[in-house]
Amino acid sequence: MGVPLNQAIKVGTYVLKQHLTGRKRYPLVLMLEPLFRCNLACSGCGKIDYPAPILNQRLSVADALEAVDECGAPVVAIAGGEPLLHREMPEIVEKILARGKFIYLCTNALLLEKKIDQYTPHKNFCWDIHLDGDRDMHDRAVSQEGVYERAVAAIKLAKAKGFRVSINCTLFDGTDPARVAGFLDTVNEIGVDGVMTSPGYAYERAPDQEHFLNRQRTKELFRAIFRYGKERKAQGKTWKFNQSPLFLDFLAGNQTYKCTPWGNPTRNVFGWQRPCYLLGEGYAKTYKELMDTTDWDKYGVGNYEKCADCMVHSGFEATAVVDSVKRPWKLAKLAIQGIRTEGPMAKDIPLDGQRPAEYVFSRHVEQKMAEIHAKPQAAGAAE
């Protein structure tokens, strides 16, 4: 299992407590984006298309800790942009760990060799390295040659220094299941502690709009990958996923889940992002405002056109985790039988009642630019 036992117990206890107290909506993972600037320009990324004054903004240490305390989620995923561009990131990590949180620090690893000695191995800390397949797959995804080799070297360095390391692997249309299986074999051999995989979300601002998977293609792709996984298991080899087994079962088309956008709330330089990590259609000043004033029923598969093909972990992992705590027998059955890769798929959510997409990106950018110009700020802690 890619999820550490202490994390599984703490998160499971947390979910059970929320359930017993009747709390309907609660966070599992805080998606903390201290900056948007990155040292790569991936073709499928919709996170970096901002004017320079916005890219120069940073959350301070105080901002980051306030978000952690206000939200209360047991897990914090620090993303971006590239978090290692933030000079105060070691202090942010240290102080979040002191609060008893689990941290996944997401990075493309290009700066990891230079920065790694600023961090100390900890049972609750994990490097989450972006690696979208083998050398050719990954370098094509990030639009730059040589990145795969540098990331693998960084993984080996981090493991040698005693860190936990996981892989964040995003898959797109046209992906060869056999190559993904070979990639999963390779990262297992390297000693990676777990893999988090997900289909890519169709960011409206991403340069490449042709290779995002629809829901049917996603299910077919993951069923094909998991068939190879069954072959490996018969050979005594097991891939380690840093995810709920029920989420993986969902990717294979065996679960009908609605997304849980409040399960992974996002705090970035704009504020608290509505409604989720993937869609920025409004921002709240506080976490409470986000939860109390967001019209959650407007979003999700079947409710909103932009959500129609989404099966991404940040939307559905929380749903699967809650389901596994409420219905542990489903996990037990999955552990015995494995992920089903043949036969009919679970009924999907109909799309005939969804509202049309709204395009509001420019409005948010204009508002932030006006704010920056009205009150000039220091760029913050950047390289």
Automatic annotation (TrEMBL):
PROSITE patterns in the cross-refs: RADICAL_SAM (PS51918)
Natural source organism: Acidiphilium iwatense
Radical SAM core domain segment(s): 20-232
Pfam family, one: Radical_SAM
Superkingdom, natural source: Bacteria
InterPro entries for this protein: Aldolase_TIM (IPR013785), DUF3463 (IPR022563), Elp3/MiaA/NifB-like_rSAM (IPR006638), Hopanoid_synth-assoc_rSAM_HpnH (IPR017833), Radical_SAM_PqqE_MftC-like (IPR050377), rSAM (IPR007197), rSAM_sf (IPR058240)
NCBIfam families assigned: HpnH
Keywords in alphabetical order: Iron, Iron-sulfur, Metal-binding, S-adenosyl-L-methionine, Transferase
Source lineage: Bacteria, Pseudomonadati, Pseudomonadota, Alphaproteobacteria, Acetobacterales
GO molecular function, one term: transferase activity
Reported cofactor(s): [4Fe-4S] cluster
Record keyword Iron-sulfur present: yes
Record-given protein name: Adenosyl-hopene transferase HpnH
